[in-house]
Amino acid sequence: MYFTATEIAAAVQSGSLTARAATQQALHRIEQTQPAFNAWQVIRSDAALAEANAIDARDDRDSLPLAGVPIAIKDNIAVAGEPMRDGSLATSAAPRTTDHEVVRRLRAAGAVIVGLTRVPELCIWGATDSAFGVTRNPWNPERTPGGSSGGSAAAVASGAVPVAHGNDGMGSIRIPAACCGLVGLKPGHGVVPVGEAHASWGGMSENGPLTTTVADAALMFSVLAADPDAAALIDPPTLRIAVSTSAPSLATPVARGWAEAVHRTADLLRGGHLIRSATPRYPATLMNTTALALWTAGAAADAHVSANASLLERRNRIHVRIGDAVVKRGLANPRGREVWRQRALEFFADTDVLVTPTLAQPPIRSRRWAQRGWLASLVSNARYAPFAAPWNIIGWPAMNVPAGLDRRGLPVGVQLVGKPGSERTLLGLAAQIEQLQPWPRTA
């Protein structure tokens, strides 16, 4: 059994484990797992050991919440001294000169950055393949680990590191977490620093943790949000929980295993919480108009600033052209967002938490989806992962919680959604689910 981040930090703080030893163990597991799963874009062997040595030399290790914890960073935020390729040959290979604010916070908390993880080009898609290769799911290498934080999810699910950074603009933390049987939290808007405006997809994208336990998710979230109190899991009072297996997009079937996971979880919680079946009034245009417009416009803005758009994959050149047309015609406007926000507020007037499937179907195949074109990528993504994006559109917190395995032996998960400011409530409820229904931590 691999140590959790919480266990590693406690051991380094007490002196029973060195940060160097924890880092060496992680680097050894990376070496073992990288050929099979291709989770890593950059492996920082020498730099990570130097960082670990610096942690071991400190006299204040007991004050560092992530003391000596090996951690992965998704390759779409800056790590000083390393290139940020964002899954693309169209981006600069020059090393970054400064850390992104969330990287700075993780380092200041004592974490050791052992590497950067693979993403699909510009983090647009829900499967992780790019010019740098195909990333595979440790539970079944024929299936994707999801995207766009697929490399981070594969790194954690393979046991290479206990925790990883991800970010989520249309589900890019929760989708990989669900594919790989992990805890994945997308904080609400403004809780964790995002960074440059062009890369936030119109305010939809948030940075958050991918972990194997709820305690580790709370610990990492507390560092990312600069809120030490958030590391302490609270046992929530009786909550009004709505349960729904209806997808936000019309005519989207939900696989039996994913629907059963929701009902099974609801039954577990029924003794301590008030459970009802209810579905938000998703606008008919939410996914095929509002989400599509914001997604393409956000990716286009990112591409024009951070990449040579002419060198992108063909499907992403199409995606950017659509985004440019959306912006030119004024379609990426706030009207659809506000209609949906009002409906969500109405629904949550008598609801504290909504529980849905995180995915509608099992993870799609691991392959070079870029070679199959824009439409094939769009249809495959929309069919298997429709539940996440609505909550990015209005910036509300949501997370994936593992809920066992399906009949194929693949993880299934449930999505917990709450009102703005409810991250600690979601984490507390997730901890109750973890206690009632433990899950295998790694593949």
Question: If you had to describe this structure to a student in words, what would you say it looks like?
Answer:
The chain is globular. It has helices spanning 5-14, 19-37, 45-56, 101-108, 150-157, 174-180, 214-224, 256-269, 286-306, 314-328, 335-347, 374-384, 389-393, 423-436; strands at 40-43, 70-74, 112-117, 129-130, 133-134, 163-168, 183-186, 206-211, 240-243, 274-277, 353-357, 398-405, 411-418. β12 and β13 (411-418) form a beta hairpin. 38% of the residues lie in helices and 14% in strands. It comes from Mycolicibacter virginiensis. It holds the Pfam family Amidase.
Task: Count the beta strands.
Answer: 13
* Mean of pLDDT: 97
Give me the number of helical elements.
Answer: 14
| Low-confidence spans | none
EC number: 3.5.1.4
Family: Belongs to the amidase family.
GO molecular function, one term: amidase activity
Protein name: amidase
Quick recap of the structure?
Pfam families: Amidase (PF01425). The protein is of the alpha/beta class and 443 residues long.
Topology, element by element:
Elements: H1 5-14, H2 19-37, E1 40-43, H3 45-56, E2 70-74, H4 101-108, E3 112-117, E4 129-130, E5 133-134, H5 150-157, E6 163-168, H6 174-180, E7 183-186, E8 206-211, H7 214-224, E9 240-243, H8 256-269, E10 274-277, H9 286-306, H10 314-328, H11 335-347, E11 353-357, H12 374-384, H13 389-393, E12 398-405, E13 411-418, H14 423-436
Helix pairs in contact: 2-3, 5-6, 7-14, 9-10
